[in-house]
Write a structure and sequence with these properties.
The chain has about 425 residues and is of the alpha/beta class. The chain has helices spanning about 20-30, 45-50, 50-60, 75-85, 95-100, 110-115, 130, 135-145, 175-185, 230-240, 265-280, 325-330, 345-355, 400-415; strands spanning about 10-15, 35-40, 85-90, 120-125, 150-155, 155-160, 165-170, 205-210, 215, 220, 245-250, 260-265, 285, 295, 315-320, 335-345, 360-365, 380-385, 390-395. It has an eight-stranded mixed sheet with strand order 12-11-8-13-16-17-18-19, with helices on both faces. It binds cytidine-5'-monophosphate.
Length: about 425
């Protein structure tokens, strides 16, 4: 039977550990399955096994230098990252996991991990105490969250170790690694179907988009919110295993039928829908809507006629309810409350003040003064603010931002309870 790995371009990363010798067998098995393999070794890996062995087995030169003058235009890492259809790191050392989790890119392999958009398989191997260390476990779970659907963890086997210890930390057998990678292609796991189900069984309620407050039957007060950020979040919460309900203001966006959608127009309607959601039982509430702060005191039943005598007119406005603050005030401490703060200056200090005032667990601050991000754009750049943390997310697609926000919300929520 032909392997699902036939003609697949596999980038095999090897890091420093005694199990590096098993990577030679792994390389041979990938080649046997019909894959093309390019090997990247860390400096440590080369102490355990020579590049020449891997070169002979893969039939390709082994790469290890980050700045390789011979590689295409000196940008070998980007070229390699684009070439790879899947990345397998085996063995992955504790140091490698820590570096990748920290977003470091100080050698070719870690740089590739940042640059690739391909599915990633990580097969850790290390001493059992290093594996059991909470820092290693935290790195793994955070990686699992941030890489989401792209990461498949191939956990180590348990047994006798090279150092004489007995316990978990032995590299998964090369045949099993290949079988796992083959099987995930069979199951089509590289489509968006496999989420890391960190929020399985949780109910997430979100508000998204603007609200529309009528002045008369033809006019209204609203804002530029497109709802894109809220809808991207809804998708990512769903991908993380949650049941998702979106309370949407008037937006020109569709969402999958797997998301429950409640359409509303006004802040009052949004508040009522949010309370109904709360009564239904929720675990996480995210206020991503740009709720109008004020609405006309009276909505005229007939169209207001232009008064040619008057050069000015005024509309009396009254304050709208604050949906997010009202939800937080309901006092259910088990519900994780997340807000957004669109600011044009002093972005983070204002956001932190809002976090405290509205009694939230997290606020996502964005600077709406920049023209190329925010409101109607497909991109965003935000700072995640919690009681004890600030995390800057550089400009990227709203979908990518949403994935990172969901990962942080999941850590916060799961640590609560
Ligand atoms: O106070 P400010 O409007 O800047 O706060 C923004 C956050 O509060 C957002 O998460 C927004 O969804 C929420 N909000 C709300 N109801 C309002 C105003 C803001 O839910 N009336």
């Amino acid at each position: 039977m032909s392997s699902t790995l036939r003609a697949k371009k596999v980038l095999l990363g090897i890091t420093g550990g005694i199990a590096a010798y098993k990577a030679a067998e792994l390389c041979r098995l990938f080649i046997k399955a019909g894959a093309r393999v390019q090997v990247v070794m860390s400096a440590g890996a080369q102490e355990f096994i020579t590049p020449l062995t891997l070169q002979a087995l893969s039939g390709e030169p082994v790469r290890h230098a980050l700045l390789d003058a011979e590689a295409e235009a000196g940008m070998g890492h980007i070229e390699l990252a684009k070439w790879a259809e899947l990345v397998v790191v085996a063995p992955a050392s504790a140091n490698f996991l820590a570096k990748v989790n920290a977003g470091m890119a100080d050698d070719l392999l870690t740089t590739l991990l940042l640059a690739t958009e391909a599915p990633i398989y990580i097969a850790p191997a290390m001493n059992q105490a290093m594996w059991a260390n909470p820092v290693t476990q935290r790195n793994l779970s955070e990686l699992d969250l941030t890489l989401g659907t792209r990461l498949t963890l191939l956990p180590p086997d348990s047994g006798e170790q090279a150092c004489g210890d007995i316990g978990p930390g032995r590299l998964m057998e090369p045949v099993d690694i290949v079988a796992n990678v083959e099987a995930s292609f069979v199951r089509g796991l590289h489509a968006q179907t496999k989420g890391t189900q960190v929020l399985a069984g949780k109910h997430v309620l979100l508000t998204a988009g603007p609200t529309q407050e009528s002045i008369d039957p033809v006019r209204y007060i609203s804002n530029h919110s497109s709802g894109k950020m809220g809808f991207a979040l809804a998708e990512e919460f769903y991908a993380a295993g949650a049941r998702v309900t979106v309370i949407a203001g008037p937006v020109a966006l569709n969402c999958g039928s797997y998301i429950t959608r409640v359409d509303v127009l006004t802040a009052d309607e949004m508040l009522r829908a949010a309370y109904a959601g709360l009564a239904d039982g929720i675990d996480i509430f995210v206020g991503a809507a740009a709720v109008a702060d004020y609405r006309p005191a009276n909505t005229e039943p007939q169209k207001i006629k232009k008064n040619s005598q008057a050069q000015a007119m005024s509309i009396e406005l009254v304050e709208n309810p604050d949906v997010l603050a009202s939800m937080a005030k309901q006092g259910n401490k088990a519900v994780t409350m997340v807000g957004f703060a669109a600011e044009t200056k002093n972005v983070v200090p204002y956001a932190r003040a809002k976090l405290e005032k509205k009694n939230l667990d997290m606020i996502v601050a964005n600077d709406v003064s920049a023209e190329d991000i925010g409101f109607n754009s497909d991109d965003n750049a935000v700072t995640i603010v919690t009681a004890n943390k600030e995390m800057v997310l550089a400009k990227q697609s709203k979908q990518a931002i949403a994935k990172l926000i969901v990962a942080e919300v999941a850590i916060l929520h799961n640590n609560k309870g």
